Amino acid sequence: QVQLVESGGGLVQAGGSLRLSCAASGRPLSNYYMGWFRQAPGKEREFVSGISWNSMTTYYADSVNGRFTISRDNAKNTVYLQMNSLKPEDTAVYYCAARLGLKFAYWGQGTQLTVSS
User: Fold this and answer.
1) What are 10's strand-pairing partners?
2) SS3 content of the chain, % helix, strand, coil (to 5)
3) What is the separation of C-alpha 71 from the centre of its chain, rounded to a whole number of angstroms?
4) Most buried of the four, 24, 31, 103, 116, by CB within 10 Å?
């Protein structure tokens, strides 16, 4: 099993930047494709970004493309999400997850991001 712990959330003004971190323990993070999801109140969970085990392939939702950057440091067992040009609509709880096969099987507890206008 993999345990995931997100950190780095907080309150930021619109236009600001923040970096989320997701630290893994239990198994090497290099075994997994990793993703960041978010869920705002009253909305469905959204797949924001993903990164392959070797960082060769990344994915971004249209809503964040060009503003967010996902990266990973397998030696540190950590995945990051750099978020720039933040908007109030980015406000959500952000979760990292590890994919096992075709399913995101392991999830962190989430970290809250609030973007004020």
Assistant:
1) 113
2) 10, 55, 35
3) 9
4) 24
Spatial separation of the C-alpha atoms in residues 95 and 91, rounded to whole Å = 13
Over residues 52-110, the pLDDT tens digits come to 999 999 999 999 999 999 999 999 999 999 999 999 999 999 999 999 999 999 999 99
What would the DSSP string read from start to end of 5-17? EEE--EEEETT--
For residue 26, which of 42, 55, 3 has the smallest C-alpha distance? 3
Sign of the alpha-carbon dihedral angle for 101, 51, 18, 29: positive
User: Tens digits of per-residue pLDDT, 1-35?
Assistant: 899 999 999 999 999 999 999 999 999 999 899 99
Measure the CA–CA gap between 73 and 88, rounded to whole angstroms. 29
Find out whether 24 and 98 touch, Cβ atoms under 8 Å: yes
| Cβ proximity of 72 and 86 under 8 Å | no
